[in-house]
Amino acid sequence: MRVSIPTRDENGLEGIVEQHFGKAPTYTIIDTETDQVMVIPNTSEHMGGVGLPPEYLNQNGVDVMLCGGLGFKAVRMFESYGIKVFVGAGGTVRETFEAWKAGKLQNATAENSCSEHGNEEHHQH
């Protein structure tokens, strides 16, 4: 399984999680079977390239996306590619990945998606 986390840098597991997934300069991808860590540049249209992040990550074989929070449209787009999204990511890639493995991140749904991109509040159920 390939897990992707939006990141600000190319520091792999020690990289800092970027809260706005679309504007992340890089995406760090962890292969859970081989523990291989790969950092790819964000070449989506948000960064002057082509396509939207969900499409780009799908092309890179991503199965799961861990991020701080995202809007409903983005959740739906990831789902349309069969990519599961979890919210609540923060700190470093390693911290986020460990939190996800421990079941501490919430599965993103229409109910807990952010109405605004910059909104740091997450609704608790």
UniProtKB/TrEMBL annotation:
Residues 15-101 form the Dinitrogenase iron-molybdenum cofactor biosynthesis domain. Pfam families: Nitro_FeMo-Co (PF02579). It comes from the Archaea. Signal peptide: none annotated. PANTHER family: DINITROGENASE IRON-MOLYBDENUM COFACTOR PROTEIN-RELATED (PTHR42983), IRON-MOLYBDENUM PROTEIN (PTHR42983:SF1). This is Predicted Fe-Mo cluster-binding protein, NifX family.
